[in-house]
Amino acid sequence: MCGIKELDGVERVHLMGIGGAGMSALALLLSGMGFHVDGCDLSPSEYIPALEEQGIRCLLGHSSSHIEKFSPHLVAYSSAVNPDQEELRSARERGIPTVGRGRLLSWLFNARRGIGVAGAHGKTTTSSMIGLILERAGLDPTLTVGAEVCDIGTNARAGKSEFFVAEIDESDGSFEFFSPAVTAITNIDWDHVNYFPTYDDVLSAFVRFARARKPEAPLVICAEDEGSRSLIEKLRGGPGVVTCGWGKSWTWGAFDVTRKAGGGVSFSVARHGETLGRIDLAVSGEHNVMNALVACAAVSSLVPFGEIAETLSVFRGARRRLEKVGKKTTREGGLAEVLDDYAHHPAEIRATLSAVRDIYPGRRLVVLFQPHRFTRTAAFYRQFASALGGADAVLLLPVYAAGEEAPPGVTSALISGAMNEESSALCRDEEDAFSRLDSLLRGGDVLLTLGAGSVTHLGSVYIGRT
Fold first, then answer.
1. Which residues of the chain are under the pLDDT cut of 70?
2. What is the dotted CATH code of the domain comprising 5-101?
3. 198 with 190: CB under 8 angstroms?
């Protein structure tokens, strides 16, 4: 159907875990390419209504009956699905091939001129920037990212050109299946400790990913990051390495940075020490300056700098990246700004809180944080406590399990115990958090909900409470 040898004879694809960010994007992509797509998930999600609007049927729960009902030619599953799950066993018993999400996406990606964006932090924003730049330049790219791109209105689109922009996830090691024509790495950090027991395991995986790029393919990398510099050393430099960082000593450099009142940041750009011009971002934070610089370098051979700068000036970001939820009327009648962000690693939290301080200088910052995964909480609770110290007040929800079993003693209390008792508090549940917020919030405050789990919905729920 699509000229990809691994998908010869495949017309119907069934996706298990279809409600997740990555799988929903894959569903939209496959549907846009002409495949008949359906799927299932254990629970509803914000992505499913958009899938059903496109005629993609989504069932609740996993069951072997789905295989008989849909008669798929291929079954794909997310990393959250147990490979020995009953529905998958049923497919295999019927002789139907099964494949993980990452490998299936790599088949689609490797068949085109792929621009792959990886990294511990910032890959969603960077890949969104690249996708928007190519789209506005008329290059009609295929795009798949881990969140809805505000300027495009979706987390995936099937373009007609040879270009394929993908956020490539390292969390389960599947990024090693990809062979980009342009590889971009935002940074390297220890995370996904359930898959990578040590930092060295993460670094080794990124080395293999970098080496898997197509011959003569450039490797664009933020060299201000310690992990990225370690990667460059292990690769022994080599042809095609394009560095990004502060100042003019890198291949691409950002300098003369100015934070804009009310949000946004402006900076000058140099290539090989020569000033190209200035970029005015609508999104905030120095981390987004580096994201934008990596995006510039990744597409510089395809789009003139002036057009890149023009597109980035209107880039509004991706969903859940410092997204404005609304305003909450406080008990004394004032208004508090409510924001939401996906940050769930200490480094991401530091960057997010710094950006909020830039946007709302002098205002009190209240954070409602939901730790994501017990393994991450156990590994980083001290770092979480340190990063959250950048807020004026912190409320901690129970750990979002994400399918993990709770080990003894691993709770949000680990983080709270490492923090200043006067500035943090443990919440039993959402209702307890709302009650504490009612007493805590004052007019002029900024409330930031943080985490990769169900906390994303709590800001809008709280605003709607009377």
1. 1-2, 151, 237-238
2. 3.40.50.720
3. yes
